[in-house]
C-alpha cells in the first residue's frame, strides 16, 4: 500500500520585526510547512537588526537556505520609534550569538516587494502568504502584476479591529484603528479589493491572548533549549507594555501564525468589511454590507494556544 501524505503548505512570510513577529517566525520554523521566503518590512522595527535576527532565527532552525528579502517600501504612518528598537536588543541575545551567521548560498535577493513577485511566480500554487505587519509589499505586487492574484491561495493577516478599540494613539486619530492597517491603509484597501481568500486575525481575537506572566515563566523549565530560550526571552522583553502603553502586549502575530498548524484552536465568521482610508478613523476596518468577505477569527481556545506554543518551542 502506498502512503499518501498531504504535501506541506507552501508559505511566504512578510513580517515587520517586532518581538511578536520574531516569535512567529520561530514558531513557523517548527511547523510542517514549506517556507519559501521571508520578507522583512521596515515598519515596527529597524530594518538592519530585524534582517539580522531573521537570518539568525533561520540558522537556529537549520534553514539557512531560506531567502530573506529586505523591505524598502514603507507606509505613510511610521510606527513609534520606542517600539521599533526591539530587534536591536534581540540581535544581541546570547542564544542568537552562539555562532556567527551562516553564509547565505541561496543567491542574491531583490528588495522585498520585487522578490515577492519572484517568489509568487515560482511557487507551486496554492501559496499561503502570512503577513504580520503592514500589507505594503503585497499591495505593490498586486498593483503592478494583478495576475499574481491567481497564484495566491490564502492570505493570513494579523490586522484590524471590529468590535473592540483600536491600538493607534496618534494626534488627530480617534483610536479605532489597528497599527498594521493604519501604517498603510491604502495597501490594506488594495489587498482587500482582490478575490483572494483572506483569513483575518483582528484585535477582537488577539485581545484574548495577552502575554501572561505564567506563559512567559513556563519557558524557564526548559532552560538550555535554544528555541525555548529565545521564545522566553522575546516574551520577557514584552514586559513593561502595560506600564508604558496602558494595555498589554498580546500574542498578536503568533496567534495568526498558529492558525497554519492548529486551525482547530479558532472559531471563524464570514465578515463583510471595508478599510477607512482617510479622516479621524484612518486605517479602521469596519463591517459594511457592501464590503468584501473575510474569514475572521472570532474566538480562540486560550489555554490550548499557550500550550501549543510551549509544546512546539520546548
Ligand atoms: O497591532 C499589532 C501589531 C502586531 O503585528 N504590532 C505588534 C505586532 O507585531 C503593532 C503594535 C501594537 N502595539 C504595540 C505594537 C506595542 N505596544 N509594541 C510594539 N508593537
Ligand atoms: Ca508585526
TrEMBL record:
GO terms for cellular component: cytosol. Keywords: Glycosidase, Hydrolase. Residues 11-306 form the Inosine/uridine-preferring nucleoside hydrolase domain. It comes from the Bacteria. SUPFAM superfamilies: Nucleoside hydrolase (SSF53590). The keyword Hydrolase applies. One of its GO terms (molecular function) is purine nucleosidase activity. This is Inosine-uridine preferring nucleoside hydrolase. It comes from Micromonospora sediminimaris.
Amino acid at each position: 500500500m502506498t502512503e499518501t501524505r498531504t504535501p506541506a503548505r507552501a508559505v511566504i512570510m512578510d513580517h515587520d520585526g517586532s518581538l511578536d513577529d520574531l516569535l512567529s517566525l520561530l514558531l513557523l520554523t517548527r511547523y510542517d510547512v514549506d517556507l519559501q521566503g521571508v520578507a522583512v518590512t521596515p515598519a515596527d522595527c529597524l530594518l538592519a537588526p530585524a534582517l539580522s535576527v531573521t537570518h539568525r532565527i533561520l540558522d537556529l532552525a537549520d534553514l539557512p537556505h531560506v531567502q530573506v528579502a529586505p523591505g524598502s517600501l514603507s507606509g505613510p504612518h511610521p510606527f513609534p520609534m520606542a517600539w521599533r528598537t526591539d530587534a536591536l536588543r534581540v540581535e544581541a541575545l546570547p542564544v542568537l550569538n552562539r555562532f556567527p551567521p551562516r553564509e547565505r548560498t541561496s543567491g542574491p535577493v531583490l528588495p522585498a516587494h520585487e522578490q515577492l513577485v519572484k517568489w509568487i511566480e515560482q511557487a507551486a500554487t496554492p501559496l499561503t502568504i502570512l503577513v504580520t505587519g503592514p500589507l505594503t509589499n503585497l499591495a505593490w505586487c498586486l498593483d503592478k502584476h494583478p495576475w499574481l492574484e491567481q497564484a495566491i491561495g490564502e492570505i493570513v493577516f494579523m490586522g484590524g479591529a471590529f468590535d473592540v478599540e483600536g491600538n493607534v494613539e496618534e494626534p488627530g486619530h480617534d483610536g479605532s484603528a489597528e497599527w498594521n492597517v493604519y501604517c498603510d491603509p491604502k495597501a490594506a484597501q488594495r489587498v482587500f479589493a482582490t478575490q483572494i481568500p483572506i483569513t483575518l486575525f483582528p484585535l477582537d481575537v488577539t485581545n484574548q491572548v495577552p502575554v501572561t506572566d505564567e506563559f512567559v515563566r513556563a519557558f524557564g523549565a526548559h532552560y538550555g533549549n535554544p528555541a525555548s530560550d529565545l521564545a522566553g526571552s522575546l516574551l520577557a522583553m514584552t514586559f513593561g507594555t502595560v506600564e508604558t502603553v496602558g494595555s498589554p502586549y498580546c500574542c498578536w502575530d503568533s496567534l495568526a501564525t498558529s492558525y497554519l498548524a492548529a486551525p482547530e484552536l479558532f472559531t471563524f465568521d464570514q465578515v463583510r468589511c471595508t478599510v477607512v482610508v482617510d479622516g479621524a478613523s484612518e486605517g479602521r476596518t469596519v463591517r459594511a454590507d457592501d464590503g468584501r468577505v473575510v474569514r475572521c477569527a472570532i474566538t480562540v481556545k486560550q489555554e490550548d494556544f499557550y500550550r501549543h506554543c510551549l509544546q512546539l518551542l520546548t
